[in-house]
Design a protein that fits this description.
The chain has about 80 residues and is an alpha+beta fold. Helices cover about 30% and strands about 25% of the residues. The mean pLDDT is about 90.
Length: about 80
Amino acid sequence: MRVRFFAGARAAAGTRETSVDVQDADRVGDVLARLSADRPDLARVVRACSFLLDGVSARADAPVGAASELDVLPPFSGG
């Protein structure tokens, strides 16, 4: 699956996007845990993030598929 990082999540991940091999029964949280395992800054940022899975708001317990696209969006403000 494709994972895209935005703003502070991009800085913490050290990349704009990455690909992840998805296993049966994986959920958003499983994918993020694997990506954060060796990136402590990303692990910290992800706790405050929201997620879009295939363009729809998703929670950490949402199931993912090999063709899914996950966007990791840290909180941000605007005006």
